[in-house]
């Protein structure tokens, strides 16, 4: 009998009819029949990923308890189960990973080509994975790291996995590139060298890696100074390989060699600043060199050995040229004025240990003495130490001939015609003989009449000095009117006739006593007594 199918025939009705037919036939359904039944009950084909499980619904579905479906998924996807348990990976970082169900995100029975992952790349937050995208990684496309056809979870997070071709170290370092490099940029890596057996200090901290690791070879690299600086060794290996005994890593030239401790010779003053080769000229520091000044500075000795070899008696370590030698304290002869500017050998012309120098002016300046050594007083009486010629400070008032009047303003050479000053006359006539209008007739005591304030300023008391007062007409006469034979002669008679014999009208008849009749006021008007 044929069964009439209603118009509203459904899949569920067909399944029910099929099941009833099987039961009417009196036979229980076998495995093949059961699989056929489950396929008939499926809402649609599964995705290509689950095609092998399509015939065994029980692998994914528990007919008695729908809530166990997530555990069935995790039984098959063990990697995801581990991520959820250890709270790592994308599923382990989900906020509901411990209570959520897989079917909330992943659906099946949508056909072979259905996308059961349903991942929205634009909204995907990579911070929910074990590898947060930072720096330059944030702008990369997914395909830059995730290969097509490969599960995304299989991408390793190690730097070397992606940057092996960019590794300039050629695998010499560990795979943890992040120890030196950042995600912002590949260049400018910072390596903590303190974690190695060679800690970088001083100038080593600022050099590039290639400066020590030539050609990018990091193993093995020398750890001794000589290993890198053998070509910079000015000592040519004579000081051994332990450069750190003297040098520091801050600066190659800043040596800290304890010269006193090592050699018994302390480097003081300028010696502490000069280059080692200035003394160790051969470059071999084992060669013996002198420790006294003369041993090194004989060529610089401006004294040509005249002062001996004890240079330290005068010179210090700070500078070779003297600035404050205590000549007065050591030799009781202060160097003042022009003496302070002289070189030592200007006076010390021979060996100081054999040459005895005088301490008076004449001892050094005898050859320059224009006075010929005829002055008893010391040179310092007139001359100063600033200059030999000026200023002269001789005080004539302290001599046996004080200068008064016009004598004070005349130059020394006007009286001292030669520099043998003691030979200069002290009498007026000694200097003024050519100015003597008396031609020596009045003697040499010019001061009897004349004043040193002026040659024409003279005063002669004729009455007191000659006992012949000039009265009347005599007072108006000049000296030469009476003293004229010879001119300026003082040997003139006081008799009237001696001057007036030509005026005697009496022709000597009344004798030479004219004053018996005549007066000194006028020759005329005689009075007879």
Mind explaining what this structure looks like?
This protein has a domain at 29-132. The chain contains 17 helices and two strands. 19% of the residues lie in helices and 1% in strands. It has helices at residues 11-24, 31-41, 69-76, 78-86, 89-92, 159-163, 209-212, 225-229, 259-263, 293-297, 327-331, 361-365, 412-415, 428-432, 462-466, 479-482, 496-500; strands at 450-451, 454-458. A two-stranded antiparallel ribbon has the order 1-2. The model is unreliable at 1-29 (pLDDT under 50). It has 529 residues and is mostly helical.
List keywords for this structure.
2 strands, disordered N terminus, two-stranded antiparallel sheet, 17 helices, 529 residues
TL;DR of this structure?
The protein is 19% helix and 1% strand. With 529 residues, it is mostly helical.
> What's the arrangement of strands in the largest beta sheet?
1-2
Strand fraction equals under 5%
Structural class: mainly alpha
Helical content class: 10-25%
N- and C-termini, Cα separation:
237 Å
Shape: rod-shaped
Q: How many distinct helices?
A: 17
The overall average pLDDT, rounded, is: 81
What's the total count of β strands?
2
Q: What is the helix/strand order?
A: HHHHHHHHHHHHHHEEHHH
Unreliable residue runs: 1-29
The whole-angstrom Rg is 68 Å
The profile of the biggest β sheet is: 2 strands, antiparallel
């Amino acid at each position: 009998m044929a069964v009439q199918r209603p118009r509203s025939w459904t899949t569920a009705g067909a399944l029910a009819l099929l099941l009833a037919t099987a039961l009417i036939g009196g036979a229980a359904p076998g495995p093949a029949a059961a699989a056929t039944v489950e396929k008939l009950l499926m809402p649609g084909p599964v995705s290509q990923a689950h095609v092998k499980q399509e015939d065994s619904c029980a692998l994914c579905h528990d007919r008695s308890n729908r809530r166990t479906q997530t555990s069935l998924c995790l039984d098959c996807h063990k990697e995801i189960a581990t991520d959820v348990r250890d709270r790592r990976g994308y599923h382990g970082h989900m906020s509901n990973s411990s209570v959520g169900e897989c079917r909330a995100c992943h659906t099946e029975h949508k056909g072979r080509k259905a996308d059961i992952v349903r991942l929205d790349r634009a909204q995907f937050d990579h911070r929910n994975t074990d590898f947060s995208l930072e720096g330059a990684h944030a702008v990369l496309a997914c395909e830059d790291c995730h290969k097509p056809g490969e599960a995304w979870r299989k991408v390793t997070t190690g730097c070397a996995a992606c940057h092996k071709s960019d590794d300039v170290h050629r695998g010499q370092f560990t795979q943890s590139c992040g120890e030196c490099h950042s995600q912002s940029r590949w260049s400018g890596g910072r390596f903590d060298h303190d974690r190695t057996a060679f800690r970088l200090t001083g100038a080593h901290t600022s050099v590039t890696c290639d400066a020590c690791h030539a050609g990018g070879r990091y193993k093995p690299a020398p750890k001794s100074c000589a290993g890198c600086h053998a070509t910079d060794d000015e000592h040519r290996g004579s000081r051994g390989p332990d450069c750190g005994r003297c040098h520091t890593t801050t600066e190659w030239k800043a040596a800290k060699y304890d010269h006193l401790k090592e050699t018994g010779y302390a480097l003081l003053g300028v010696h502490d600043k000069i280059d080692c080769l200035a003394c160790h000229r051969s470059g071999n520091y084992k060669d013996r060199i002198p420790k006294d000044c003369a041993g090194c500075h004989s060529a610089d000795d401006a004294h040509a050995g005249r002062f001996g070899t004890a240079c330290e008696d005068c010179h210090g370590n700070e500078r070779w040229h003297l600035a404050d030698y205590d000549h007065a304290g050591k030799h009781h002869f202060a160097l003042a004025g022009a003496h302070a500017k002289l070189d030592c050998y200007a006076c010390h012309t021979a060996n100081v240990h054999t040459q005895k120098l005088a301490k008076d002016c004449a001892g050094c300046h005898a050859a320059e003495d224009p006075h010929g050594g005829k002055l008893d007083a010391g040179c310092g009486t007139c001359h100063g130490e600033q200059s030999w010629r000026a200023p002269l400070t001789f005080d004539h008032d302290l001599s046996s001939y004080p200068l008064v009047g016009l004598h004070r303003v005349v130059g020394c050479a006007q009286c001292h015609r030669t520099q043998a000053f003691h030979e200069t006359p002290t009498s007026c006539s000694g200097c003024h003989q050519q100015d003597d209008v008396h031609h020596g007739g009045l003697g040499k005591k010019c001061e009897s009449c004349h004043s040193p304030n002026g040659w024409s300023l003279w005063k002669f008391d004729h009455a007191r000095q000659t006992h012949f007062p000039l009265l009347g007409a005599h007072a108006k006469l000049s000296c030469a009117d009476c003293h004229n034979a010879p001119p300026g002669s003082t040997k003139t008679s006081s008799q009237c006739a001696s001057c007036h014999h030509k005026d005697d009208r009496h022709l000597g008849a009344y004798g030479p006593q004219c004053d018996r009749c005549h007066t000194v006021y006028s020759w005329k008007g005689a009075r007879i007594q």
